[in-house]
Amino acid sequence: MEENSGEFPNDDIGKTLLALKNEGDDLSISRDIEFFIDFKTEEAALNCGTLLFKNSYRVELAPPSDEDPASLWTVIAVPHLQPTYEDISSLNDYFQEVANHYGGQTSGWGCEAVGAP
After folding, report:
1. pLDDT digits over 87-113, tens only?
2. pTM for the full model?
3. Taking Cα atoms as reference points, which of 51, 36, 34 lies closest to residue 102?
């Protein structure tokens, strides 16, 4: 990965956006961005997912892995937007607030590269 020239803050979000850009991603193009929110119980995941759905987010629910007893229920919230640092940071903070309300924790975000070779 190239050195961050100050275009993005030097944190996880900034480093991910820089990596996407360095791979040829056209960050000016909107796309689905997945935010992952983990919970110990199905009930908490369903409650969180329901709230996010009611707030117009596309939501998916992934159950724990049968092979990993320590795995968690994961809510995947999917807004469609241009991947700017400000928007991703703001949404990440929002999803963490929602997760806190239901006893969960955000565990990252991701998106497919657009316009990359």
Report:
1. 999 999 999 999 999 999 999 999 988
2. 0.90
3. 51
Task: Give the DSSP letter of residue 78.
Answer: E
- What Rg do the C-alpha atoms of the chain give, in angstroms? 15
In a domain, 3, yes or no: no
The tally of domains found in the chain comes to 1
Whether residue 7 is contained in a domain is answered as: no
- Kindly state the DSSP code that residue 65 receives in the 8-state scheme: P
Report yes or no: 36 and 109 within 8 Å, Cβ to Cβ.
Answer: yes
Dist CA 83 CA 67 (whole Å)? 33
What CATH number is associated with residue 98?
3.30.70.970
Domain coverage including residue 50: 12-111
Q: How many residues does the chain have?
A: 117
Contact in structure between 23 and 33 (CB atoms under 8 Å): no
